[in-house]
Amino acid sequence: MTGAVSIEKLRRDHAVGSFDCGKESLNRFLIRNALQSQQANASQTYVLTMEGHVAGYRTLVIGEVAYADAPERLKKGLARHPVPVMLARASRGRERLPGPGHRTGAAQGRPPSNATGRRHCRHPRLHGAREA
3-state DSSP call for residue 74? Predict the structure, then answer.
């Protein structure tokens, strides 16, 4: 199975209604909330499309943490101002991508590395309980 694979910013015409990654909360976010949040400039969502249907997505949210609440490793060398952070949530559909080992960064379910070189922010005030 081969076909066009692309990563695009979420648009109204993307068919997200049939997306299923196996986690209802992530499916519901993409179907009900992602475009609305993007239009309100609260987040940006990018979708991985394969042969015209959505096979995965990544949502980016920018925010800040009070300097006093930031982990020491983030505060090192910074002025005593709020610390900017970027949070990412990624999900991919249950189907595998075509070809041996063919997985793009958007489909791997990993947030991008941040400026500190770490892949995951573990700040408790930002995340609370994590999904299993």
Answer: helix
DSSP state of 116: T
Q: What is the pTM of this model?
A: 0.63
Q: Over the stretch 9-39, which tens digit does the pLDDT of each residue have?
A: 999 999 999 898 889 999 999 999 999 999 9
Q: Is the pLDDT of residue 56 over 50?
A: yes
Distances (CA, A) of 48 to 13, 79, 85: 14, 38, 24
Domain 5-113+120-127 in this protein, CATH class: alpha beta
Confidence grade of residue 98 (pLDDT, cut at 50, 70, 90): low
Distance, CA of 107 to CA of 94 (rounded, Å):
10
Domain residue ranges of the chain, discontinuous segments joined by +: 5-113+120-127
Phi and psi, residue 73, nearest 5°: -65, -25
Q: How far apart are the first and last CA of the chain?
A: 32
At residue 89, the pLDDT reads: 73
Q: Where do runs of H (alpha helix) occur along the chain?
A: 24-28, 34-39, 72-75, 124-127
